[in-house]
Design a protein that fits this description.
This protein has about 475 residues and is α/β, with parallel strands linked by helices. The protein contains 20 helices and eleven strands. It binds iron/sulfur cluster (2 copies).
Length: about 475
């Protein structure tokens, strides 16, 4: 089966229960953001800029668990910020799993191996030795790590254990060069790959989470799927990037450029995703076939952002993961108070101009599952996709030239820094969009992993391109 039976059955049961009760609006996936602090500063990340936060500003564990209970979504995507920085992430995952929900841990991958080593220490006994030897041979842990693991871990805290109810959801936006460029740090792609390899050896379920931007080459996305399929990754989330209206205006005003020069419009998204259904046959793409048809431009859907609510330190964020018109103290209050009919694109007409180019999964994927724009045969399509055979790993993907960046001496940082430090770039203020910080940091300004706010990254890339042309 494409997805584990218990998981598909749980989600299907949730939909059927609410359909029978005629619940008008209900949650399918909770996007839980316990904190907005991150150890990276991806140029395309709006989340770390929208919320002024520090490590002090985080949801309490009780709030996290109560939020999942309140909206009762069968799936909880723990994101941020970087959720593995959250001091009680283990208790949070453990608590949500105990509520009987499916958990996705959306991570940039940098702390995954540390968390898995904690797990190994917590279960250490002599029978683990062959696994440790294998991990050392594969250079995924060191001899020193083994010594620490052998000491065990008995602090009474839970660890993040492999479970059929949990996925690591690793943020990867391309192969090495592209991904490291987008996250603005060399070596991140390599760390993600090593973490994924270790996770698979230990029996975790792993998915990748990719946002497609205007510059994203479709060919590279396919190669990325091929590569990760060869590592036996269990699935892929993919969504088009989203551009805030304010960022478009800023482009026009400050740079005198037309938005379509930078941003993924609906027409561009459809062109990029025209082969998504073929990808869905070759790879385990998460998301309904109806949503895939929507992305490929074969049908329209109505936004159902209320089905993937976001809960963060300020409350329930409305109307969606991407746009903030308010925060509410409870999910039910948000459902009641928000004028949902003001948002989304209906029959090709944007009800809110900020929604004009949005086709993101958090607005439209649930529409496919909930039958919001039902067409004859949709239920069968969804059923066949979910319960059909899982695509086999594509082992030829090992031949993909995945390490095409810093691993072969082609790091992007020198190139980007040279570009933005040139007199021409300085005139355009490029330095301000390329401030790189190394450690978990406080965020002062407006998505998170995969949120798709591309304004700053687009600006950086366009300036690098402009600089190249000028040379
Ligand atoms: S269309 Fe997109 S931006 Fe608009 S409310 Fe829906 S998810 Fe949010
Ligand atoms: S996109 Fe994810 S990894 Fe990157 S800065 Fe934002 S929260 Fe951190």
């Amino acid at each position: 089966m494409r997805f584990p039976l218990a998981l598909s059955a749980k989600i299907a049961g949730h939909i059927v229960k609410h359909k029978l009760k005629r619940t008008p609006k209900f949650a399918m996936v909770l996007q839980l953001e316990p904190l907005h602090t991150c150890n990276l500063t991806c140029t395309g990340c709006g989340r770390i800029r929208e919320y002024s936060t520090s490590l002090k500003d985080m949801m309490s564990l009780e709030d996290c668990l109560a939020s999942a209970q309140e909206c009762d979504a069968p799936m909880v995507s723990i994101c941020g910020g970087e959720p593995l920085i959250y001091p009680k992430i283990e208790e949070c995952i453990d608590g949500i799993l105990k509520q009987g929900r499916i958990v996705y841990v959306c991570t940039n991958g940098m702390f995954m191996r540390k968390k898995m080593k904690d797990y190994l220490a917590s279960i250490y006994n002599a029978e683990l030795e062959p696994t440790l030897t294998k991990l050392v041979e594969e250079k995924l842990i060191s001899e020193k790590d083994v010594e620490t693991i052998r000491k065990g871990k008995n602090d009474g805290r839970p660890t993040i254990r492999p479970s059929k109810w949990m996925y690591w959801n690793v943020h990867v936006d391309g192969l090495e060069y592209t991904h490291d460029l987008i996250v603005e740090r060399e070596g991140v792609f390599k760390e993600c790959v090593e973490a994924i390899k270790m996770a698979k050896i230990l029996g975790y379920q792993v998915a990748t989470n990719t946002t497609v931007y205007k510059e994203t080459e479709v060919k590279e996305i396919e190669q990325m799927f091929e590569f990760f399929s060869s590592l036996e990754v269990d699935g892929h989330t993919i969504s088009p990037g989203y551009d805030y209206d304010a960022a478009k205006k800023d482009m026009v005003k400050r740079l005198g450029k037309q938005p379509e020069d930078f941003f993924l419009t609906r027409a561009m998204t459809r062109a990029k995703f025209k082969d998504i259904q073929k990808w869905g046959e070759r790879f385990t793409i998460f998301g309904t076939p109806v949503y895939q048809e929507f992305l490929a431009g074969k049908r329209e859907l109505t936004c159902t952002a209320w089905a993937i609510p976001t809960r963060n330190i300020r409350g329930w964020k409305a109307p969606c993961y991407l746009m903030t018109d308010g925060h509410y103290p409870s999910y039910q209050e948000m459902l009641r108070e928000v004028k949902w009919e003001k948002y989304g694109v209906h029959d090709g007409v944007a009800r809110d101009h900020r929604c004009e180019n949005c086709m993101v999964h958090c607005g439209y994927d649930p529409s496919g599952a909930l039958g919001t724009n039902y067409q004859r045969g949709d239920n069968w399509k969804n059923f066949r996709y979910n319960f059909g055979a899982k695509p086999k790993p594509y082992y030829e993907g090992r031949n993909v030239n995945a390490f095409n960046g810093v691993s072969i001496g082609k790091g992007h940082l020198a190139e980007a820094k040279a570009a933005i430090n040139s007199p021409r770039a300085a005139m355009n203020g490029a330095q301000s969009v390329f401030q790189r910080r190394e450690e978990p940091h406080d965020h002062k300004e407006g998505g998170s992993c995969g949120s798709g706010d591309t304004a700053q990254r687009d600006e950086l890339l366009s300036k690098i391109a402009a600089n190249k042309k000028a040379e």
